[in-house]
Design brief:
alpha/beta; Rossmann fold; 6-stranded parallel beta sheet; 8 helices; 12% strand; globular
């Protein structure tokens, strides 16, 4: 992002990128462990619409079930249009208990959403540096998303980021089946990566504030 900023604003002497992780509280509870006999819970929380990948998420659940994966989708957030609400309603009829729609969540209910899932699937089509990814990784949750904005650097080795021209449900199925046996290792790495990113972001922010304060000491006012 810093490189793109410099190209766009070539007169800028310096630039800093402060990760949204700086604004996400660390989670003190242990990372949830997945056992092979458990129902694999994949989640999406967002303003639910096609641009955020609602249909891709639902299709991923359906395809993984066809592959024999014992799975449940956990969906949260407000719908953007009546058609989006209809999409969820139809999916609930098709999937039954395999789709748990919780509506808009805040505070403790939102934190519980993250605590309940094993993989965060975010098939968004328009994004910069989504806070929901930082929130998920804070809970020790691997990420599957698309290669947009800063998402690739956010996720790192803690999941996968797919190109826009790749069929998302197919890519998600392949990743889940290939990585289910190392999911707990990825969970630990996700928490560790979040904490490292948060520490770095806070350090940058503190240095920026110190620099601004120092500059203001030398300011002259009319």
């Amino acid at each position: 992002m810093a490189q793109k900023f410099s190209k766009l604003y070539d007169k800028a002497a310096t630039n800093l990128v402060i990760s949204n992780s700086a604004f996400v509280d660390p989670v003190l509870t242990p990372v949830k462990q997945y056992r092979n006999e458990d129902v694999l819970k994949i989640g999406l929380i967002s303003n639910l619409n096609e641009n955020k990948g609602l249909s891709d998420f639902i299709q991923s659940i359906k395809e993984l079930r066809r592959q024999g994966v014992n799975i449940q989708g956990v969906l949260a957030g407000p719908t953007s249009t009546p058609q989006d609400a209809k999409t969820i309603e139809t999916a609930q009829k098709d999937l039954g208990e395999a789709l748990d729609y919780r509506g808009a969540l805040y505070g403790k209910d939102k934190a519980q959403f993250y605590a309940d899932i094993d993989i965060f699937i975010f098939p968004t089509r328009n994004e910069a540096q989504p806070t929901v990814i930082a929130e998920a990784m804070a809970q020790g949750i691997p990420i599957l998303s698309r290669d947009l904005g800063c998402i690739k650097s956010q996720v790192g080795p803690c999941g996968a980021v797919f190109k826009m021209d790749k069929d998302f449900p197919s890519a998600a199925i392949e990743w889940v089946t290939d990585n289910i046996n190392i999911l707990n290792d990825l969970k630990k790495q996700a928490r560790k990566s979040f904490l490292a990113d948060r520490e770095k972001a806070i350090h940058i922010a503190q240095n920026l504030l110190t620099s601004v304060a120092s500059s203001c000491e030398n300011c002259e006012y009319d």
